[in-house]
Every structure is written in C-alpha cells, then in structure tokens.
Amino acid sequence: MKSSPPLSAIFLSVLLCTLIAGPTFGMISIGVLTQEKAKARYGITMHARKNGDAGIKVWLEFKKEGWLEGFTYAELRMEDGQGNHLVSARLQPKPVHHGQAKDVTTVAFSVEADHLGQCSFLVVCYGSNEGDVGYYLKVKDFLDLTTSLIDAHNTKPHPSSATQPKTVMVSLPDPISLAWNGSSSNGIIFIAVKDEGEFMMSGKPPHTMLTFCFVDSDKEKGLAPRIYIGGRSPTEAGVRMLSTHESKIILEALRSFLESHNKQDELASLQKNPDLPIGSELRSRSPYCVIHILNQHKHLK
After folding, report:
1. Contact yes or no for 18/179 (Cβ under 8 A)
2. Is 219 exposed, middle or buried (0-12, 13-18, 19+ CB in 10 A)?
3. What is the pLDDT of residues 87-96, one digit of tens each?
C-alpha cells in the first residue's frame, strides 16, 4: 500500500470527504483511459464549465452499457505536484443537466482551476464483461487546461496569504466524506463537513487544523462537543458549539467509516471513549478525530 504525505488543508468539495493515503485494490485490474479510447470504446466523455466560487465543474457522462453495465462506483482522486496520492473521494451519480436523459449517468466535482491538472476520475466496474476493472481518466488528458475557461479562475493570491496554506476547493454531492491517511503512524481520518453543497479538504503542511472534540464547558450540562481551529487548545483558536445534529452526523460517519475499513482498534476506542480529550492529547489518543479543513469558520456558521 503506497503511503502519501500527511494531508494539510483542502476544501474536499474535500470533511473531504473520503481520503485514502494510498489505494489498495486487491484483485481489481486498474488501467488508464485516453480521451480517444474512453469515447470510442466506452462512450465516456468529460466536460467542464465555470461553477462560480467553486471554480470549474468537471463531469463524466456515460451510459451503463457494455463494460459500464457493471458500473459500481466513481471516485475523485487528487495528486500533489510530484504525483503522490493526496485525496480520494467517492462521487455519487447525480444529474448535471436540467432534463438530463434518464439513461445518461453523470458524476461530477468542482475544483479551483489551479488544481485541475492534479485531478482524475476513477471509474470502477465489478463483475463486468472485462471482470473487476477500474480506469483512471486524468483531467489533463481530456480537457484543455490553457483555455479561457480555466484562465478565468486563476486569481492571484492576496499578499497577506503568502504564508497561508494552499487551499483546494472541491465540490461533492454527499454531506460528509472521510478518508484514512495511512502514512500517519496511527492513522488519521480527515473529515469534510458540508457547507451549502461544498466541502473543504486539506492540502500540504503547514495547514490550518480544525479539531473535533468534547470539552467540559458547563458543569450543569456536562461534556459538550466543540470544534476549534488551529492551536493546541480552545483558548488558542476560535471555538463554537456543535449542534446535536452536527455531532450525530460526524460520529455516525466516523463509525461507519471505521467499520467499512475494518479499523477495529479505532472503532473500539471511539465506542469506549465518546468524550474525546482536547488539545495535544487528542492527536495522540484519538488521531481518528482530527479534522483538517480550511476556510476557517465559513462553512461552520
């Protein structure tokens, strides 16, 4: 299993949202599709358009015929500048066009233009006429990244942001997405929480860290879930209470993720210790509850 460097802050449109440090596909056969082969052999086409503040929306269109009759799932996958794996996030089929034909399947994400070249679709079909097969479709092999469509979203960073972490915005249809960073000694789950249809995920360090934990904020009410950004304690960063609904979504997503990835030790720890420690202890004792997100409080309001 290939390990990737620790993720820093990205918005997996990014709490991103399923992240995996390096894919392990078992017996599945993985290949790469060119634009010509994708169209001629499988009828797959890739398209893009401007998507407001979310950057560029990119999507695949295809019909579930032939090999694709066994369509199982699609993922967004992102690499860093050196080709190391950064992010994996499951994409749910969802209509892109108004009045889209029922026999046409589309999967999409939105990302800042600067990061289009790092993105790929992974389309997997189990039990297909080719067996258990998956193909990568690299955005840079399908789209002209020098067109005005892309240039329109290449903005210069504000001088004050020179020392800030690089932000990648990616849109996904699901309300929450998680991933395992296998390069960490203990493993970390990165969570992307929905904000008006968008997500934030992390890029490379240095990064702004959002930590999910429980703190004893009120002796009468007892332990309460909180999120704080950066620093090692709530006093070093902005803090706000999580709603009961938010807390339930995050914890259920964590449990589901741990179960599906057979992380038995982490699952047992989460079940035995629902009241998570705070500050620096949280990173060592409950690494699976560290949340990396950028955009500060924007998506938490």
Report:
1. yes
2. exposed
3. 777 888 988 8
